[in-house]
Amino acid sequence: MGKAKRTRQFGAVKRRLQLTDDRLKTDAELEARKKRKEKEADETHKVTPVSTALFFRHNTALGPPYHVLVDTNFINFSIQNKLELVKSMMDCLYAKCTPCITDCVMAELEKLGTKYRVALRIAKDPRFERLPCDHKGTYADDCLLRRVEMHKCYIVATCDKALKRRIRQIPGVPIMYITQR
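Now predict its structure.
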């Protein structure tokens, strides 16, 4: 049998002062730190207003006919999976759907070039409602997010993981997406 290891007694171990220890700081530094903490505690926190359409986390503004905001990659995924967009939405929601496309999404589809001309032709379908944008830039994700924050009457159709993560932060906004077969 080997020797039993003895643990050192608590008082026998030498301790060193860390550089961040308060005993090494001057009184002026400690008072400045206390004032900073008090100032941070006194600041008012801005609370975002909650939509009146929400009953807890349930959105009462949603109802048939549903308005579905469509993203570029949702159109591309529907083409890859050979789904007819409007018919598939109606089959999913069991109600009449009005697909809506913003100017930013159209601009993004036009920028993608000839490879995505089928998606552009689908987006120009007269059954799709066209929503004008009044902001600068053509980044579709920010446009969709801003529109959903202002009006909670939309369902967002997207397959983009980053956009879905951002939309989930907003309570009461449903997301429609396509998974691979």
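Strands lie at 54-55, 58-59, 66-70, 97-102, 129-131, 154-157, 175-176.
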